[in-house]
Structure formats: C-alpha cells, structure tokens
Amino acid sequence: MKNSSILIIITVLASCASTPTDPAPWDSSPAAIRQTFPDSEYIAQRGRGATRAAAEANAAAELARFFSSQISANRGYRITTNNAEESISTHDEAFVNSQINLFGIRYADDAYYRKDLREWRTVAWVERDEAWTVYSPRFRQQADSLIALFEAAEQETDQFRRALRFIAADNYARSDAFESASLFGQVLHPQRMNVEFASVRTRIAAIPQRLEASRRNASIFIDCPVDFENLVSNAFASRFTAFGFPFANSRNAAAAVISVTVSEGMQQRDLGIFYHPSLQAVISTSQGVLFSFSAQGERAQAVTPDVAKRRAYQSLADKVRESFSLNVNIF
Which of helix, strand or coil describes residue 148? Predict the structure, then answer.
C-alpha cells in the first residue's frame, strides 16, 4: 500500500513537471499573436480553459465567433426585428461551423499553463491560403449559379420575362445562403476573393439598374371581367405597383397580361346568400403563358346580396395581397 502511494506521488510530480508554464511567444503581449500569426497569412484566436482540451475548445469557439461577427457586421442590409436578427445569427453560426470544420482548425503546439490564473492558454488558427483551396470551389458553384441567372436575364428579349429573370438573380444575390457564403469568403481571404470573384461582384452591382430598366419596359394589363367594385383588380394592381411595374391602357400595349377568372360560388338559401369564391390568374406574354396563380376566398354570407358579395370579393382581394408573388421559376 505504501509503495502504491509513493508511485502516485511520483506520477503527479512528473506530470506537473512536464506541464509547460512559460508564456508562449504569441501570448507575451497584446500584439504578440499578430506577430506570431500575421493577419495576411492567418486567422487566429486565443482560448483559455481549466484543461488544455477546454482551452482548445474555447479557442475554436472564438475563431467561429470571429467569422460570424465579421459576416454580421458586413451584411448589406440590416434586420430590424429581434427574431429575424436571431435567425440570421443562427444561420451564420451554423454556416461558419460547417465551413471551418471542412478545412480544419489547428492549435498551437506550445500551449501552456498559467499558474497565477490556474488556466491553460492556447491558440486556434487557420491558414488563409490552405483554407481557400478548400473553400473557393464550393463558393464557385454558388457564384456560377448567380452568373447563369444574370446571363439568362441579359439574353432575354421578352421584357416581362427579362424583369422576372433579373428579380430571380436579385433574390439569389440577397439570399442568406449566398450572402453568408460571399461574406465568409471575404473574411477568409479578401485578396483572393477580390481577384477570383470580381466578375460576380460586377454582375451583382449591375442587377439593380438592369432590373429597373427592364421593369420600365414591361407594362402590365389586368383583365378581370368578373369583379365587384374593382376589389380584385385593385388587389393585383397594388401587388404589381409594389413590384415596380407600370400599367398599360390596353392589352395590345402591354408587355404582359394578367387574365383573372373569378368563380363566385354563390348559393341562395333560406338563411341568406352564401359565397365561396375562388380565382385563377394566368400571366402571359407574346411568347405564351408564364405561370398561373390560384386563390380561395373565405366563405361569406349575409342576408343582403350586395353585402355578401362584397365580403366574398374582399376576401379574394386579401388573399391576392397576402399571397401573390413574382418569385417564380420561369426557367
């Protein structure tokens, strides 16, 4: 028993003796980490913990947090509601973790134990050039998709279809997935990003002007022969106004026609007049039908026919304002 106790003491002493306690060069001063891991070549963050493993986990978390904070700070738009901010933040954190896990995080070989604070200290780092060789082909796939959307819009001769294609390109460029990927690349390796993806940025910058020009030349005519107090027609008109499209005075002068067919679903019963309305809108150009939209209104009833009818059409108009979108796939 006595021999066992002596062996344990010797083992503990040996362990303590082998634990490095001298400060590493990267921790000798506030600026030392940038001297050991120059910003032009590395992205590095310090970590601390009760054990070396805990310190490495903390450093890795700090590295991921650095990427996420940089992406958040450089987003081209700001989200105002807390829930949306949390959603974007969560998306960024998940995206960052998935990317840095692909090319791997390295840790300092000279981690050490700081006795006065009773904690281990280390550094987690990635080498920019090395990580770029893994990351750039993945972003290239997204960049090529955006280029394809842009080029398809540029080559489109039908003005309304051209506008829809530029809307699709704009939506893609503004999507969380693409924007996060683009900003991640900028944080990871700004020099390579600026050179290799310059053409993508040029196209993104050109989208707003191209979209505005195509919309100006894509006037809309709304054909809704069955309506009540223009409720349905005005609902479609409000949506296209929100999308930035002008209106034509006649079908022949329009770049696109929205043909709306309303089914009133009217029934007369002892308790009054009932309506269960629905509609289908077909959007077409000189090249043919592009897409269609359907809506089902709420069941409406009243003793007075006009009141019941107004409620039915108002229900359809509300559905149009809530649901009608030009985010469609026309490819």
Answer: helix
